[in-house]
Each structure stands twice: as structure tokens, then as C-alpha cells.
Specification:
single chain, 7 helices, mainly alpha
């Protein structure tokens, strides 16, 4: 067993840091494209989600049929049919799927934000004001989605996917950059 596993892991990260940076740059570019073409990205995301539901539904139904003697057969069958029907609805009409998902997300953010604010005000844990601010922002986002619906249903999901890709890409770029720098600095003696 190596005497210093973190250094071994750092060296492995450093060797692949260029790939991390490249992956990050690609994700950032894809995120910018998703934001620029947010309606297209929304429809593409809903189609992918729909097909995932269809595949999951078929697998659930097949599993239920294969284990039909088990007591949970009807639950598997019912869940599989629900996934399958919802997936087919999203695939058949991704625009309606995007509108309904955005409406659901708006309600989720609004209610979740209110709960965050109430919880933070009630608990008053360390740095509770940040939790209140986060809850207010989440609730306002939900309210904005609702008040701008159905227009928001056209762009929001694609925009959210793009933002997520940009931040994920930036995290990979930073990991690659910092691990490269960390190992280079770790090999040099520190100045006192």
C-alpha cells in the first residue's frame, strides 16, 4: 500500500488534467449553444426525457411480467405503464411536455422556496440569512415561471440545461487547472 495515496491520486489527476480541461471547455461551449438555442435545447431535452421514460416503462413492464408470481406484479405493471404513457406523450408532443414540465418546475420552485424561507427563519442556524436569500430567489424564480407561462415553457428547460452545462464545464476546467498547479507546487519547497 502506498505511503501517501493522496499524492498518487494527485499525480493521476495531473496526468489527465488536459482531458479535464478539454471536457470542461466542450461542456461550456455546449452550454452556450444550449442558451443561444434555448427553444431547440428545451425540445431536445424533453425528447430525451420522454425516451428515457419510454425505455424505463418497457423495462419495468418486462420485469413485472418476468416476476409475475411476486406480490408486486401489479405495482410494477402500473408503474411501467405510467412511465410508458408519460414518455410517449412527451415524445409525441415535446412542446406540450415542455410546457407542463415548466409549470411543474414553477410550482416546485415556488413552494420549495417558501419552505426554505420558513425553515431558515424558524431554525436560525449559522448564516441563516443566506438560506433565506436562497429561498426567496428560488420562490421568485418559481413565481416568474408561473407568471410568464406558457412563454417560459419554450425556453426555460433549455436555458437551465445550458446554465448547468456551463457550471459543470467550469468545474472541470478548474479541476484540471488546479490539479496541474497543485502537483507542480507540491514538488517545490514552500518559502517560509
Amino acid at each position: 500500500m502506498p505511503s501517501n495515496p493522496p499524492l498518487v491520486d494527485r499525480e493521476e489527476l495531473r496526468r489527465h488534467s488536459g482531458w479535464f480541461i478539454a471536457l470542461g471547455v466542450v461542456l461550456i461551449l455546449l452550454g452556450v449553444i444550449a442558451i443561444a438555442y434555448d427553444v431547440f435545447a428545451t425540445i431536445a431535452s424533453v425528447l430525451v426525457f420522454g425516451w428515457l421514460l419510454v425505455i424505463g416503462g418497457v423495462v419495468e413492464i418486462v420485469h413485472g411480467v418476468r416476476t409475475h408470481r411476486w406480490g408486486g406484479f401489479f405495482l410494477h405493471l402500473l408503474a411501467g405503464l405510467l412511465f410508458l404513457v408519460a414518455g410517449l406523450l412527451f415524445v409525441a408532443n415535446p412542446l406540450v411536455g415542455a410546457l407542463s414540465l415548466t409549470l411543474f418546475l414553477g410550482a416546485f420552485f415556488l413552494v420549495g422556496g417558501v419552505f426554505e424561507v420558513v425553515g431558515a427563519l424558524r431554525l436560525r442556524a449559522a448564516h441563516w440569512t443566506w438560506a433565506v436569500l436562497g429561498g426567496v430567489i428560488t420562490a421568485v424564480l418559481g413565481l416568474m415561471l408561473w407568471t410568464q407561462w406558457p412563454r417560459s415553457g419554450l425556453w426555460f428547460i433549455g436555458f437551465a440545461v445550458g446554465i448547468s452545462m456551463i457550471f459543470r464545464g467550469w468545474a472541470w476546467v478548474m479541476l484540471g487547472t488546479l490539479t496541474r498547479r497543485d502537483v507542480e507546487v507540491a514538488g517545490k519547497p514552500r518559502a517560509a
